[in-house]
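Quick one, probably user error.
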């Protein structure tokens, strides 16, 4: 019964990631079609605009043109997420953690697809008020998931709750 539940959870995780990546891809396709070569689209004057940007680096313009580096890091990151999802017990207390991992994976995959296909990531959200780096939907997934991940690790889970990640065999297995 537990194996069947685990398989169902993994299928839901994969389908969730696919849906989230699809949302990211659609948003980037719309941004490219409507914003590329156009003036900024002002949502709130001097606060928030849609602005097309082909980002060949990371946030704040670091690591420009290091696409292979970003792809390699994404693949390693996704392997770690897959490992954790496979090892994650099928218990209600881990459901939010499981969702956070799906959002993290979707964000990594969304930007990795851009890097592989186009050699850059399409960014288009810009908070002009605080001059925040231009970002996209996948970046939102990663940022909010990292915040949720930190909160879960610091305030919700104990060391015992994370013992399933041990590379040593548990007595219960």
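Nope, works fine. Designed sequence:
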């Amino acid at each position: 019964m537990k194996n069947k539940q685990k398989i169902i959870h993994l299928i839901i995780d994969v389908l969730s990631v696919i849906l989230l990546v699809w949302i990211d891809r659609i948003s980037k396709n719309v941004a490219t079609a409507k914003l590329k070569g156009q003036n900024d689209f002002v949502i709130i004057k001097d606060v928030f605009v849609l602005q097309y940007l082909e980002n060949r680096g990371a946030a704040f313009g670091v690591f420009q043109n290091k696409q292979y580096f970003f792809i390699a890091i994404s693949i390693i990151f996704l392997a770690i997420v897959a490992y954790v999802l496979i090892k994650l017990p099928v218990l209600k207390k881990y459901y939010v953690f499981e969702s956070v991992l799906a959002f993290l994976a979707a964000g990594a995959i969304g930007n990795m697809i851009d890097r592989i296909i186009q050699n850059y990531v399409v960014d288009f959200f810009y908070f002009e008020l605080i001059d925040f780096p231009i970002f996209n939907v996948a970046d939102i997934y990663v940022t909010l998931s990292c915040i949720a991940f930190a909160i879960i690790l610091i305030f919700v889970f104990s060391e015992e709750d994370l013992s399933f990640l041990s590379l040593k065999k548990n007595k219960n297995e």
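The chain has a mean pLDDT of 90.
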